[in-house]
Design goal:
heterodimer; A: 4-stranded antiparallel beta sheet; about 0% helix; globular; B: mainly beta; 6-stranded mixed beta sheet; 4-stranded antiparallel beta sheet; 12 strands
């Protein structure tokens, strides 16, 4: 099993659809992250979870709803998205806490297209 | 707060030529430094990292970087590039504290290796 697995790799949805992105890590890490990567824009940190608790929400619109049922799984629920939400959504994990370096381990991303 | 500036958004270079991708950072505390690489349609993967010790760090695929504390720089170098090095390169920092894991990324440098 690879370290961080994201599904689906590609997703096309209409603006009224509801879909979810899934991320699973097999590295024993305690922190998980969602990043958004749009064309020609910097990497944007969306959410951070530490031991299942959300510790950061960077002013993300409510049409994106994260869920972290345990320290190995992270979801991003999508509802009534806009075309400008089309992007590559990257999940990452790390060991968080004193003595840890902050090295991030990324999944391969979910390419989302909103029509 | 930390910030990362990648001084070149695009670097075109011919195959077998040397390359340097420049990264400067700003932080009021000590940091860990990273370079990540993103190949087309993939997630980010760690290329190399500076944690402490020797300021010259060697990574995968023949890349190396030098930490310069006085100039707050962490430039990435390779003496001879291959077509397969064409990718997006991201410089990142994370801080020495219990919240290690929240990385700050630069905007990325697109390296294009031409035959």
């Amino acid at each position: 099993e690879t370290g961080v697995t994201q599904t689906p790799r590609h997703l096309v949805m209409g603006m009224t659809n509801k879909k979810s992105l899934k991320c699973e890590q097999h590295l024993g890490h305690n922190a998980m992250y969602w990043y958004k990567q749009s064309a020609k824009k910097p990497l944007e940190l969306m959410f951070v979870y530490n031991f299942k608790e959300q510790t950061e929400n960077n002013s993300v619109p409510s049409r994106f709803s994260p869920e972290c049922p345990n320290s190995s799984h992270l979801f991003l629920h999508l509802h009534t998205l806009q075309p400008e939400d089309s992007a590559l959504y990257l999940c990452a994990s790390s060991l968080k806490g004193q003595g840890n370096t902050g090295e991030l381990f990324f999944g391969e991303g979910s390419r989302l297209t909103v029509l | 707060a930390q910030s990362v500036t990648q001084l070149d958004s695009q670097v075109p270079v011919f195959e077998e030529a040397p390359v340097e991708l420049r990264c400067n950072y700003s932080s009021s505390v000590s940091v860990y430094l990273f370079w990540y690489v993103q190949y087309p349609n993939q997630g980010l993967q760690l290329l190399l990292k500076y944690l402490s010790g020797s300021t010259l760090v060697k990574g995968i695929n023949g890349f190396e970087a030098e930490f310069n504390k006085s100039q707050t720089s962490f430039h990435l170098r390779k003496p001879s590039v291959h077509i397969s090095d064409t990718a997006e390169y991201f410089c990142a920092v994370s801080v020495f504290d219990t919240n290690a894991g929240k990385s700050t990324f630069g905007d990325g440098t697109t390296l294009t290796v031409k035959p």
